[in-house]
Design a protein that fits this description.
Elements: H1 2-17, H2 20-45, E1 49-53, H3 58-71, E2 76-78, E3 83-87, H4 91-100, H5 125-145, E4 150-158, E5 173-180, H6 186-199, E6 209-213, E7 218-220, H7 226-255, E8 260-269, E9 273-301, E10 320-346, E11 350-361, E12 363-368, E13 374-381, H8 385-399, E14 409-414, H9 418-468, H10 489-507, H11 509-524
Parallel strand pairs: 5-6, 11-14
Antiparallel strand pairs: 1-3, 2-3, 4-5, 6-7, 8-11, 9-10, 12-13
Helix pairs in contact: 2-9, 5-6, 10-11
């Protein structure tokens, strides 16, 4: 207890020793600290709500409200009573408890495959098919509601009757209505259509889906016939390739700071070409038969001349004759031929070429006066043939392979409106000035707020100084004025000596004590 009293006494003594400015600063700091603590406590004590469920149906909203009221839980309804907000501390537990009781049942959508969780012994095939179609619609609706731009959706599919032969099979049809928070892009519309076509059944395709918004805006209309659908798909395919190549060329021009108008036409082959090549070669021998013929001819002596060869005279020379010998040999080989067939198929949609037309900005040169000095104006300078050829080669490289710079690329230059260009530059400069002014205004407002805060702090500080300041005692008597004694130079010298002695006593007390002892000793002697 004595220790606390000592601490309190030292604190009070220290407070009295502080200057008026220090006391004011401490008081302001204490007030600010108390204000921050009070704000934090107030924010912490304020109930924070979070969404328990969203996109609720009327039946689910009523059931959940009744359950929360029975539990004594505070809740807030938002979004036209389709969203239930509860305190953050109870969010997880409430979701678990309500799920155990089967709430919500649909959460803003028609039921899905949970329709088959309940078994009915009195059901038939017709009811089974009908519930299956309802389940498909509900599951599709849940998928579509997951998109960030979809607030709610409605899906209805009219299934076609299954036929025995595919030629007589009719397609299914679907109608989709979306409540959107913003206008969906082309890719998002295509994604919705593909999801519906994929999960809507075997007989449903993109050409039989109607997509619209709740505001009556038609997002996708199916083509009226097959020819229109085919032409539409081909046109979209060609436009995609053309836009891609145009964007490549324009990006290349923007990188070098050149203005141009680019148009690209794509040549697309939609034919399906099948090429078959048959190659027959000698295969494995099955049987063989060999036949060879050899002929040998030689001369021999004759018996006599014609007509008298029977009794030639003695000593007469015999006539010569010819002897022929023939030998036949035959070889026959049977083989099974080897056949190889190569089939090449070219799928439709191959881009066989591009045609590029570019209208680019001409070069500019300064306009000179009679003395040959620039006047500050410019005039267009047409491109030469050599320059156009270089630009054609550069554009062909930018488009991609398969583009002939001489045959497929046309380049022309045109002087863009210089007056409009100057006006546009002035407009851009004006917009930049306005943007800069807006930025400075923002900085100025922030600086003004800071100055106001500082001024308020100084004003409050002065008020507190005046509140803590003691009033000066004024001694006034009627007809009497009290004046202090006149200060002489000797008195000033004595005051300086006294202050020096006091400072020395505080800094080196031992030396001062020794000096006083020596003075006393000298005075006694």
């Amino acid at each position: 207890m004595d220790y606390l009293r000592q601490v309190w006494a030292e604190a009070v003594q220290t407070w009295h020793k502080l200057t008026l400015s220090a006391k004011v600063n401490i008081a302001l700091a204490a007030l600010v600290t108390l204000g921050v603590v009070f704000a934090l406590v107030a924010m912490g004590s304020h109930t924070q709500y979070a969404a328990l469920f969203t996109r609720l149906s009327v039946e689910d909203t009523a059931a959940i409200q009744a359950e929360l009221q029975d539990r004594g839980v505070k809740y807030v309804m938002r979004d036209s009573a389709t969203t239930v907000m509860v305190p953050v501390q109870k969010l997880s537990q409430l979701r678990v408890d309500l799920a155990a009781k089967g709430l919500p049942k649909t959460q803003g959508t028609v039921p899905g495959f949970e329709l088959f969780d309940r078994k009915d012994l009195m059901t038939n095939q017709y009811l089974q098919d009908l519930n299956y179609q309802r389940a498909i619609n509900g599951e599709l609706q849940r998928m579509l509601n997951e998109f960030d731009f979809v607030d709610s959706s409605a899906v209805f599919i009219s299934p076609a009757k299954e036929e025995l032969f595919s030629d007589s099979q009719k397609p299914s049809k679907a109608a989709v209505t979306l409540s959107v928070s913003r206008c969906p892009t082309e890719k998002e519309v295509r994604a919705v259509l593909n999801i519906v076509a994929t999960h809507g059944g075997a007989n449903l395709d993109l050409n039989h889906i109607t997509l619209a918004t709740t505001k009556g805006e038609l997002l996708y209309e199916p083509p009226r016939d097959e020819l229109t659908a085919l032409a539409s798909s081909k046109a979209d395919y060609i436009q995609k390739w053309e836009a891609l190549r145009e964007r490549k060329v324009l990006d290349a021009f923007e990188q070098i700071g050149k203005k141009a108008i680019v148009r690209v036409s794509a040549k697309v082959d939609f034919r399906t070409v099948r090429e078959t090549v048959n190659e027959v070669t000698k295969g494995t021998a099955v049987s063989s038969l060999s036949t060879a013929t050899t002929t040998n001819t030689r001369e021999s002596a004759a018996e006599g001349p014609p007509g008298a060869t029977a009794n030639p005279p003695e000593g007469a020379q015999a006539l010569k004759g010819t002897i022929t010998e023939e030998t036949t040999e035959q070889t026959l080989e049977n083989s099974e031929p080897s056949k190889r067939t190569t089939e090449t198929t070219n799928n439709p949609g191959d881009v066989v070429g591009y045609s590029v037309s570019v209208l680019m900005e001409s070069n500019y040169r300064p306009v000179l006066d009679e003395g040959g000095k620039p006047t500050g104006k410019v005039e267009p300078e047409p491109l030469t043939d050599d320059q156009k050829q270089k630009w054609r080669a550069w554009i062909a490289k930018a488009v991609g392979p398969g583009v002939d710079a001489n045959a497929d690329v046309i380049v022309e230059d045109q002087a863009f409106d210089v007056a409009q260009l100057a006006q546009a530059q002035a407009t851009v400069a004006g917009v930049a000035g306005v943007t800069l002014l807006t930025m400075f205004q923002g900085y100025g407002i922030n600086a003004l707020k800071l100055l106001l805060v500082i001024g308020a702090f100084i004003w409050v500080r002065r008020l507190l100084q005046r509140a803590f300041r003691k009033p000066e005692e004024e001694v006034e008597e009627e007809g009497l004025v009290i004046t202090g004694p006149q200060v002489t130079p000797e008195d000033l010298r004595n005051r300086e000596v006294a202050s020096e002695v006091e400072r020395a006593f505080q800094e080196q007390p031992e030396m001062v004590v020794a000096l006083l002892r020596s003075w006393l000793t000298e005075s006694q002697e």
